[in-house]
Write a structure and sequence with these properties.
The chain has helices at 106-113, 119-128, 136-155, 162-181, 193-208, 215-222, 226-237, 241-259, 264-270, 276-287, 291-298; strands at 13-16, 26-29, 33-36, 48-51, 53-60, 62-67, 70-75, 78-82, 87-93, 98-104, 131-133. By secondary structure, the chain is an alpha+beta fold.
Length: 299
């Protein structure tokens, strides 16, 4: 396999979803979903910037990995989640390390995430806690679901609705994962002021993003300056406060455009834009296409 391309920032290589098309032992729906059980071909002994979302379930053995420079020990029964743009490195794997993995392209993530309520908190939950150690019963149940999805890859190759079949099974599997971890987290770790402020900020964005689009509003609600709020968000996630607000508005807009027959002017009004032209420019800047073009792609 060819070397992964160097990322523009230092000696970090990028792992694009398209490279999965060339894996020897992988089930791939091009540019959408892939399943594989070996990490050797990714060159993860060096730092790699992942351009996909990955669910990794450890069946046997163990491995130490770094995710955004934080080290995690994965052993049998571990569920590990990686998001696009995160930096990954495998430090040490046991001889019997045996994972099963699902990868989703960025486009596929957009199609999936709108199916989940409270998606911002969900993403943050897994970003803060990417490793979930499952007990034997939960592991066996989830492993069976992984294997079932793998079987569907193999038996639907000639099915005209293959994407819809695989996507719906994947959505069920993701809900299963959420159900396993959607319990009060018990931790003795004391959160920093920045972590607490950012969590409060996201709670406000989830609640108020349709009415309030400015960083100043959220900063005022938290009793801090807009500059400090953006610095906190940047420190915690690599994205400033305005980007978090805009991305959540854009995600809500996608949901409204895909899941309702409301006209674009009505969607614009729901999201509190001054006019449909302003909304259209905002949406194209965030999503890359106009609201009308985006809706056509979902028909």
């Amino acid at each position: 396999m060819n070397d992964l391309p160097l990322h523009k920032n230092a000696n970090i290589r990028t792992a694009d979803f398209s490279m999965l098309n060339f894996l020897c032992q992988a089930n791939v729906l091009p540019d959408k979903i892939a399943m594989f059980s070996s990490l050797k071909e990714f060159g993860l002994e060096n730092y790699v910037k992942v351009q996909a979302a990955v669910l990794l379930l450890v069946k046997r053995g163990s491995v130490d990995v770094e995710l955004d420079l934080k080290t995690y020990h994965l052993e049998a029964g571990a569920l590990f989640v990686v998001f696009p743009e995160q930096v990954l490195r495998a430090k040490k794997a046991s001889e019997d390390f045996d994972p099963i993995c699902i990868a989703c392209s960025k486009n596929m993530i957009d199609e999936l995430i709108i199916r989940f309520d409270d998606n911002t908190r969900l993403i943050l939950r897994f970003r803060e806690n990417p490793l979930q150690q499952l007990d034997k019963g939960k592991f066996e149940q989830l492993n069976a679901s992984f294997e079932f999805l793998k079987k569907k890859f193999e038996t639907t190759e000639t099915n005209a609705c293959r994407l819809q079949v695989l996507k719906n099974h994947l959505i069920g599997l993701l809900y299963e994962c959420i159900g396993f971890v959607d319990e009060p987290l018990t931790t003795d770790v004391v959160k920093s002021r920045g972590q607490v402020l950012f969590a409060q900020f996201i709670d406000l964005v989830v609640e108020k993003h349709r009415e309030q689009h400015s960083v100043k509003y959220y900063a005022d609600e938290l009793g801090i300056t807009p500059k400090y709020l953006s610095a906190v968000a940047e420190e915690q996630t690599g994205k400033n406060a305005k980007r978090w607000i805009d991305e959540h508005i854009a995600l809500d807009a996608k949901v409204l455009l895909r899941s309702s027959s409301r006209d674009i002017q009505k969607v614009s009004k729901i999201l509190n834009f001054p006019d449909v032209s302003f909304f259209g420019k905002f949406f194209k800047r965030l999503v890359g296409v106009s609201p009308k073009a985006y809706r056509k792609t979902t028909d």
